[in-house]
Amino acid sequence: MQMAATAAIECTIRAEPDNKSLRLAAVARSATAVSGRYDFLIIKRSETGSSKNVQSGTFILQGGREQVLTTVALDRSAIGHYRAELALQSDHERFTCTSP
Asked: Residue 99: phi, psi to the nearest 5?
């Protein structure tokens, strides 16, 4: 997991495996209130097949609070066989983080 950060916005992608799936959560946090758009791209290639998932939307972050923007569930075979990118676009800057 890689984190991209500036004084205003941080983003991260949390990978949460369980017995049946791998859940990826797109998370953002800001030191101050900020709004913008996000794009969450996940590509998986494993023995059970390939998939590409793209989700996008708007966000409004309150200062000092973490927010889950969206989540995606993949089958367990995705562990070690996926690439995810979360891109945040505010009025003035763009932030990107990836996993793994």
From this structure: -150, 140
